[in-house]
Write a structure and sequence with these properties.
The chain is α+β, with helices and mostly antiparallel strands and 267 residues long. Helix content is 32%, strand content 28%.
């Protein structure tokens, strides 16, 4: 099954890389956009993926909403993660496909259409980049690179996100902001970066890549409890429980131990 999913994601990536003359519209703010290529790729992925598993549910960023099945299979898909990058010709983009089994992560595949890099994972088996097994790093906190998006969709939260980053920065090696959570978290899974923090991600942003992280030996959490896969959630991830605890201590202190928005669709 993993190989079949990877083949579909690779084909969808080629479609994204070849896209030209696409339209761009905003989805409620100039920083939150959708292109016609997003919509076309989601239709392609929905058709091909649900065809693999008849009766499976499909959750997609561009309007396909369905519950995560507690019994059975659910696809959670972002047809182009990093749409702003894509719209401006910045080649850091991810096609993100997660398959949940009985409500839990099972398979995750992330592909960068422009570089051709692909991360594949299956819980209990491992994570691979371009077919080569990978694992999270073993770096201590002072050698860690932290990747983050600094809350681009909810700018009123940015000052506290900056505060958390500022407090942590002297204790780590460096920072990165690439513009696609799916790729950044996949880079954590392969050990290229070591920690990740974003105060608000939707399930399609992180579901596939967190599957890669988990299968590669990494750990993740929300603020109050586990990462939510059925609604927007904070995502904190790291190469070790000790480093995750250090990250969580800082973020939790800055945000008073609570997620700073309501659960559900109002975010």
């Amino acid at each position: 099954m993993l190989g079949k999913i990877a083949d579909i994601v690779a084909e969808s990536g080629r479609r994204v890389a070849a896209a030209h003359g696409f339209s761009v519209e905003d989805k409620g703010g100039r920083e939150n956009i959708v292109t016609s290529a997003d919509l076309e790729n989601e239709r392609f992925l929905k058709s091909r993926l649900t065809g693999l598993i008849p009766g499976s549910s499909f959750v997609g960023e561009e309007g396909d909403e369905a519950p995560i099945l507690e019994e059975g299979y659910t696809w959670i898909v972002d047809p182009i993660d990093g749409t702003m990058n894509f719209s401006r010709g910045i080649p850091e983009v991810g096609v993100s496909v997660a398959l949940f089994k009985d409500g839990s992560p099972h398979i995750g595949v992330v592909c960068n259409p422009f570089s051709g890099r692909m991360w594949t994972s299956e819980i209990g088996r491992g994570t691979w980049r371009d077919g080569v097994p990978v694992h999270v790093s073993d770096r201590p906190l002072e050698d860690c690179i932290l990747s983050t998006a600094w809350c681009c969709y909810r700018k009123e939260l940015a000052p506290r996100v900056f505060e958390a980053t500022e407090r942590l920065y002297p204790r780590i090696n460096d920072l990165r902001r690439i513009g696609t959570a799916a790729v950044e978290l996949s880079m954590l899974a392969e050990g290229a970066v070591d920690m990740y923090f974003e105060i608000r991600l939707s399930p399609w942003d992180h579901a596939a890549a967190l599957t890669c992280v988990k299968a590669a030996g990494g750990v993740f959490h929300g603020i109050e409890d586990d990462v939510w896969f059925d609604r927007p959630s904070p995502v904190l991830a790291a190469n070790s429980q000790g480093n995750l605890d250090e990250l969580l201590d800082v973020v939790s202190d800055v945000f008073g131990g609570r997620t700073p928005y309501r659960s559900g669709s109002e975010t």
